[in-house]
Design brief:
Blueprint lengths: L6 H28 L9 H5 L1 E4 L9 E4 L4 H5 L29 H16 L2
Antiparallel strand pairs: 1-2
Length: 122
């Protein structure tokens, strides 16, 4: 038996995995925004301060960040009575539905697999 490794193909698949990771993070941001679950008054937190941090991409990690000082207080207090004028589903713990065990956790995995297939040419 003879086994040959094609470095160019392996490198292309590794890059496809990173591109799929980036795309999955951006899709997650879109899904969270479209679900209209973040507390929303004038839209600063959702529209301007929420983004995908790609700084640890090389380690296989992207992070959905909310860069507002009040975000932590709103996130960890689901008992607050959030106004629902702009986002009818506003609530605390708004990312939990996409985390492991959440109702959309499989969608994140499915999105990654689809992006990997697309970018990897599989």
């Amino acid at each position: 038996m003879r086994i040959e490794f094609y470095d160019s193909i392996i490198n292309a698949l590794e890059e496809a995995a990173l591109e799929a990771l980036d795309a999955t993070g951006e899709q997650l941001l879109t899904d969270v925004t479209n679900a209209q679950i973040m507390p929303f008054d004038v839209g600063t937190m959702q529209n301007d301060a929420t983004y995908v941090d790609h700084s640890r991409r090389a380690n296989g990690q992207v992070t959905l960040m909310v860069d507002e000082p009040y975000a932590r207080r709103l996130y960890y207090h689901p008992e607050y009575n959030f106004q629902t004028v702009n986002n009818p589903n506003a609530k605390g713990l708004w990312f939990e539905d996409w985390a492991d065990g959440g109702k959309y956790a499989n969608k994140v995995r499915e999105n990654y697999a689809a992006f990997y297939k697309r970018f990897g040419g599989i």
